[in-house]
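re: ur msg from earlier - yeah i can do the zinc ion complex, just paste it... oh wait u already did. ok heres what im feeding in:
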Amino acid sequence: MSKVIVDCSRENNYSVAIIDNQGKLDYFSFENCQKKTIKSNIYLGKITRVEYSLQAAFVDYGGDKAGFLPFSEIHPNYYQLPIKDKQNIANELRNEEKNIEEDDENEETEIETDNEDKAEQSKKAYRIYKKYNIQEVIKRGQPVLVQVYKDERGNKGASLTTYISLPGRYCVLMPNSPRGIGISKKIFSYEERKRVSNEVKKFNIPDGTGLIIRTAGMKANIEDLKKDYKYLNNLWKEISTKTVQSRVDGIPIYEEVNIVEQVIRDNYESDEKSEIIINGKQGYNDVVKFAKKIMPHEIDKIKLYNDRTPIFKKYGIDKKLDELLSPIAPLPSGGYLVINPTEALVSIDVNSGKSIHGKNVEETALSTNLEAAREVARQLRLRNLGGLIVVDFIDMDEPKNRRLLEKELQRAFMFDKSKVQYAKVSQFGLIEISRQRMRSSVTEMLTIQCPHCCGTGLVKAPSVVAVDILDSILEQLKDPRFVKKEFLEVLARAEVINHLVVENIKEIDEIQKKYNIKILTTKHHFERNEEYVLRSLEDIGNSQTAIELYHAIAAKYEVASEEKKKRNATLRLFGKILGLKNKMFSKKKKG
Ligand SMILES: [Zn+2]
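and the outut:
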């Protein structure tokens, strides 16, 4: 019984969470509607540059930056070749297609999913065409229909493909794929694959069109599958019609549905007890409208949330999200993972903690590792960590136990939507995993870099900053231009100030006496990664802070009455700087 919890109650923020049947968080995503991604959108574009050295083209599709289109992602239909050559290619492609189907039966360590088949098939098409160079067959100014498969990131433009794919709830239509019918590789049973494939063949899918049956499609009855296919086919017809009438203007010809609809289409697993609970009337209406198209039998599972408690609080998701930001992920029997994402890779350390359910060291190690394998897969999915991941499992001596661990990993990654690859577990219990990045990680979505430590997690120790401060005070005082100054204020974070007034008080006193100066210390919370600021009255100038400081100085000197003279002189100086009237100045003096 899984629950999809959706919060659309705020205008520009959509959050979606899935809770599995054990009440565990299974998926989380968040979208700021103002900063929408363009992934999966389809645009009409124009080749602006053909880059021989990269074997790629740059495409103007109306976005801010030119999109990047590798040669391997260009469908041969776009090749500018004599018709005869094109026909030969089409024949070769059909033969290749048969080989692909046979290849499918022996995939071992690499687990691929619905979304990934596209990349692979274009790779195989590329094998035939690598006898060409991009500059021979693709010309500048040529129009292309492109789909975004990777969003713009930093300075990099979006990555594009001409192999269009349109996902439905049960299948994915690839209107210009050489591939034919494909079945999600997560479905392992040969009989199942054969049965569905035979049924789908009756749909009369035109030559040159691909259809991939998703995992959800295997559970659906054949009528629903057919409806889904028809819906996608009509969508593609609409897109084609629109394309003919379009210009290169950055307006998508097809726009990916919003995040809530994506989750319901791609991640929601329906069973008798599953439900989709939505907070926000508008969002609810939109989802119902979308569901009528893609899952008409399941409209009654969609419910409008009617409760005064915020929806994420009600289902305890707020707390679960906090757990996702913690480096520690506990394991059921007392062990835990330490997850540490860095710039280059994500390191995960497996700790046995107090878990002692095995009879001996090896057994304990194995059972903790197996638990860890499942949790690693879950956490990578949940936190959406991609790129290179290195897991340090607990050492095991027996090679057969390492094989068991690999098997468990394979099972655990089976339901990951991202492409995952890994090597064997090394003798020291290390394993390298590479996982495709599909969207921002939870950390990227929910956090910003700490401005104090700039993400390193480290700031200078108070004693070190205190020494820096004392050095720069002395440096300033020894500067001849400083002679006239009588006040210096130190602003630093609380620990540093505490250190100064406890540990360095003697030195401060000496400086004050020697240079006839007053040093004030103020606890200050810096917005950025500053350690401290030294300022004299002139630095402060005529500002609100100056006026506040003026009162602070006055108050401070009230206590030490023997310094009244000095206080008056300072206040006069201060008044001059601030341009305060004598009246106000004298008033303060009386009080
Ligand atoms: Zn920090």
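cool cool. Residues 450, 452-453, 457 surround zinc ion (CB under 6 Å). ping me if u need the other ligands too
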